[in-house]
Amino acid sequence: MGPYLNETVVPAMALIEAGYGVVLATPNGKKPHIDEVSDSAQHFGGDEQAYQRSRTFFARHSSMNELRSLRSVIEEGLENYAGVFLPGGQAPVVDLMQDAELGEILRYFHALKKPTAFLCHGPIASLAAMPNARQFRAALIIRDMVKASEMAKGWQYAGYRMTVFSASEEKSVEENILRGKLYFTMPDALQMAGGDVTTNPVDFEPYVVEDRELITGQNPRSDHPLAAKLIAALDRATSAG
Q1: What total number of domains does the chain contain?
Q2: Is 116 within 8 Å of 214 (Cβ atoms)?
């Protein structure tokens, strides 16, 4: 399963409209396959025109088709980038939260306090920045919380306020879409690592948390408010620079 269409395209289009360039990068440099569940006007407030505009943007816009690998972005020089954004979908829970190259990128942006945004399932990928991300995930899967706590030491975002797709929202997805259960809940994983996690008690309502350079959105409907906060943070950072 790939990223959600609206979670990827809404922030990207907003960034471009605000005058920023967007570079789409993946671990292998290949274009991701949009999660079919998200390929619907439902995720655009029922607005068929907005949905079709987004589909066309993802299919045809150069920013969505001139892909880079994470390694090539690192080798080119991370100093060329003003901020970083990760959408949701299931990939963050499986691959990205233990991806060494993503961890390198996140540590760079954290060290320089450059705007860093994650949406829906995306915030779990922030765990890639910790020194022992792969071992941390493995400990979560076998429910060895003592080892997980040990492996989480040194996580750059410990103590940050943040949000992520909630356990109750995930339960709905597991029962109605995945037909299976994840190994762990994302709020629990982030809290175990030291995150100060809050979620909106009303499922699937927009909720965005900003703490220092970190901006996190809880669910797909947080796409527009997260984009607005990310653009504001980039504007502040670039004007200060």
Answers
A1: 1
A2: yes
- How far apart, in whole angstroms, are the C-alpha atoms of residue 130 and residue 193? 9
Q: Which residues pair with 26 in a beta bridge?
A: 69
Domain annotation covers residue 169: yes
Mean pLDDT, the chain, whole residue set = 94
Give me the pLDDT at residue 1, please: 61
Q: Establish if 70 belongs to a structural domain.
A: yes
Average pLDDT value for residue range 87-112: 94
Which pLDDT belongs to residue 208?
Answer: 98
Q: Could you give the CA distance from residue 225 to residue 11 in angstroms, rounded to a whole number?
A: 9
What CA–CA distance (Å, rounded) separates 200 from 208? 9
Query: Looking at residue 184, what is its pLDDT?
Result: 86
Residue 241, pLDDT score: 63
CATH number (domain holding residue 219): 3.40.50.880
Q: Tell me if the pTM is above 0.85.
A: yes
In a domain, 113, yes or no: yes
Distance CA 74, CA 102 (A): 9
Assigned domain for 240 exists: no
Rounded mean pLDDT, 20-45: 95
